[in-house]
Amino acid sequence: MSHSHDNLSYLVQPGGTATGTFRVPGDKSISHRAIMFGAIAEGTTEVTGFLEGEDALSTMQAFRAMGVPIEGPTQGRVVIHGVGKHGLQAPTQPLDCGNAGTAMRLLAGLLAGQNLAVTLIGDASLSKRPMRRVTVPLGLMGAQIDTAEGDRPPLQIRPVPTLKGLHYTLPMASAQVKSALLLAGLYAEGETVVTEPAPTRDHTERMLRAFGYAVVEQQSAQGKQISVQGGGQLKATQIDVPADISSAAFFMVAAAIAPNASVLIQHVGINPTRTGVIDILQLMGADLTLENVREVGGEPVADIRVRSSVLRGITIPEHLVPLAIDEFPVLFVAAANAIGTTLLTGAAELRVKESDRIQVMADGLRALGVEAEPLPDGMRIVGLGQPNQPVGTAKYQGATIHAQGDHRIAMSFTVAALCAKTAMQIHDCQHVATSFPGFAQLAQQVGIHLQVSA
Ligand SMILES: O=C(O)C1=C[C@@H](OP(=O)(O)O)[C@@H](O)[C@H](O)C1
Ligand SMILES: C=C(OP(=O)(O)O)C(=O)O
Where, in this chain's numbering, is phosphoenolpyruvate bound (predicted)? Predict the structure, then answer.
């Protein structure tokens, strides 16, 4: 995708807070899947609450380029006129997945068995991310996908008439790989069974069922096994996308570390495979409660209230890592403001996201004067909180930070600025629009002293 601004910077002055009642944009994982599944379903699917961010729009554009009529988005409403499982047309150009790993990896699985020639490309960040994790198991199913040197994008999918089902144990806890294989499994002969070593987000499983496709789950000694049979059909449905807990997380941490803060974030998806950030913040002592817990369209949602909190450093339980995988950049900011040391291990996957989130966050925190030691699979952070100090006391210097093209790094240091003694300058913030359009305006609205410059 082309970006409207090539180099956005944020200047955040100290002394802000976070207060108010608001909703953050729609869940990115669910928005990608709603387009993909709606496109290959029979009939018309209506989506509300869709994330109008660049990542989900890349997915939408890709299906339009394969001949799927899609209306919208208009205020989060999208109407997809499904073409059925075999109705996609070969695109005349490479499909541009932009910054979105989810788009590229899930599309690889969904397209592998369609007898179409398709090339998937991405931006500079995505072009550095590993793809063997999907191309190897898809190859075992009979797919023919070429990568560039070192297993990186572009992916060239060659037409093959059919795939074979596969029994596969994921070498890492990855919902993207799991989903790619289940989607390929819809087009494979027989059964495809994916075993996950630890629970990962289960939006694919839930949404396949919402589209009337049977998904069987059972526990085994190796972990949960998820199976689909090839050859079935998806039937159009309605999808109400909840607000993205990964976006809400920035304001959860902002409210926890800022003085006199209180936020109520409405209609947030609290699928248990996504709530690691809530558990971790509560273990750190955050004043965080769930209100109005309800179920919307097969996904649990709640309003999340967070107030200024005395946070304490913890050793993060490893089983929570995949359940909070995208929230670690901002959780590191919480740790920097806590009393005592926080230790994260078992999170090597953070090194292969939009940036190396361990190195980039450690470098940024050190620039603020925080002791942050990157580990091969995590980080040790010595928090600057002091007992008996009021919440929100400024603890470190502001600094100039480069977000390295990573939306979550840019937003995390915006939150960190709440407890800085001097201004924070953050460069390379344009990718915030991939997951959180309107972030800067919302930050200003809640009381963060943020100015945007191009
Ligand atoms: O399936 C998904 O929608 C996602 C899975 C996760 O990636 P991995 O599968 O690489 O862990 C997560 O980091 C990403 O933001 C979205
Ligand atoms: C890792 C992320 O997304 P993706 O893998 O889709 O680029 C993210 O949004 O933090």
Answer: 28, 101, 129, 176, 357, 408
